[in-house]
Amino acid sequence: MTELGLWGVPLAVLGGAIRVSTPFLFVSLGECITERSGRINLGLEGILVMGAMSGYAVSFHTGSPWLGVLAAAGAGLSLGFLHALVCNLPRVNDIAVGIGLMLFGTGLAFFLGKPYVQPKAPTLPSIPFGFWSDSPPLRAALDVNPLFLLGLGLALGLNWAFRATRWGLVIRMIGDSADAARAMGHRVRLVRTLATGVGGALAGIGGSFLSLYYPGSWSEGLSSGQGLMAVALVIFARWSPLQCFWAALLFGGAGALGPALQSVGVTSGYYLFYAAPYVVTLGIMIATCSPRRTLAGAPGELSINR
Amino acid sequence: MPALSGRLGRAAEALAIPLGALAVALAVFGLFMAVLQHNPLEVYALIYQGAFASPFAWQNTLTRAAPLVLTALCVALPAQAGLMVIGGEGALVLGGLAAAVVGHLLIGAAPLTVKVAMAGAGMLMGALWIALAGALRHYRGVNETISSLLLTYVAIALFNHVVEGPLRDPASLNKPSTKPIGAAGMLGSLPGLDVHWGLAFGAIFSLAAWVLVRRTTWGFGLRVMGGNVRAARLAGLPVGRLLLAACALGGAAAGLAGMVEVAAVHGSANASLAAGYGYAGILVAFIARQNPLAVVPVAVLLGGISASGGMLQRRLDLPDATVLVLQGVAFMLILASETLYGRLSVFRGADAP
Q1: What is the ipTM of this complex?
Q2: How many domains does chain B contain in total?
Q3: Distance CA B169, CA B36 (A)
Q4: Which residues in chain A are closer than 8 Å to B328, comparing Cβ atoms?
Q5: What CATH number does the domain containing A227 carry?
């Protein structure tokens, strides 16, 4: 970092944002799909950790990190279905079930993942977009994981799908008014189950990024609450997949700012940077809510809306 | 089997449904253990031993239950007014921080003064923090569930900033902590027991909360509001004040939990305070169906399951996360069993449709 001086900070933040934001991106896209269908899944934290563990374990046994990503998606899908099926029962509170799932998912992952703390599993490769440069920090910042690009594509695709495809509109309608959807003959619970399942699968992939790329190993302290933050992120992004992408970059960048500042000698106050995204999210909520109207853009069926 | 009616039916229902769900959870967990080649009966026996079979086990269990009772009240009290606050963790860490600071400043004062001041500081801090979420709800219509979750992250960041920055004890090298509270600030054990006073605080707080909610006019107003805000407004109830008070009381409980953890366990404020008691308290409250008195047995049960982790680890060489799996299964099933209320004909008497 010496040759770049202070320029190293924005560069490290950019590189860090790209690295750190990928799990945020997947988790928030997953939560976005789920919330658009009218449910909140607070259990994505458990799903993320479970995805990280199963991805690492499968990569270790098969030698293929991509199979690991697939396994993580599968684990996320099944936990997402679990949340959905429990919430399909009448009078069950989706927020409480989410917290239960958080505990269950992390517990199961810690239990099953005990043997994988030591061994080294093959991790995901990255695409060196910085090949043209001689500067090591620049090259490090431009090493991009394919999952990041996949997430970007997914954000663009979902943005289009919610606007222009039949199933996108069905999900949005069910999220805005279950009664209207029922009257039109759509199967509300089925769609919500699928949306929660897919949301879980994406969170699982986000978890596999943690264990298979950055930081790239499995341990019990792997997640720093990325799954729980998903809820804040989606509000921040106003339930738009494309804005989820920018929000994830911003949250990731805020997280990367601390270590980057530390490397140039600023050692105090960086915890406050971690808090910045939450303060901003809260500020947005305060600015856009009023006693007469809840959050603009929120799906009408969301339990936090009532 | 003749149908039970009225109050008796409801009481039996409230007891039988969660216990039934717990039994199913134990069966599922036993199956899981059997698949992994462990004898389920042996595992059950060890969990019982580790949680409730000896004075040492009870001590371990109750020490874990004490903060859970208080953080559960942080959910259960606002819930009476129809609010869902999930930010107990934030109130806990900030309450603990305030208590640690006051405890350090008052070194040399009389022991009782120090303790009362620490408890007061913790409760005040927690009350203000959760009341902030309540105020945002009342004045700006911001959803309290999300705002309290966001405030928790802000609280933990503030806490880390202060503990690792301005208020760091230079002597704490590996684990940044605030300066220690003096010996006078430390909470001792309950007489005759090896459990610290936090348990008594929790029990008293929960009893007081129950009396307040179920046996006073104020509590009745709170519950009317929880049932229907518009009806409460039409009846002339001071909705805003009720809402803020419910949040503040809940926050005070969580702040007290932070004070207890500082004064009885850690001796200063450090990162160990954010141990997830705030989140576990949410589940305790939901399983207790937001009944302030029922949170005590539920917290003891949960504390017992966590306490038995060490026993399973030593005897069967199971990972310490085993108890987390059992807790997770139990919670998912108990939450799912919520759907059965009012639908089992055994518990429905003459008053049912």
Answers
A1: 0.87
A2: 1
A3: 47
A4: 46, 100-101, 103-105, 107-108
A5: 1.10.3470
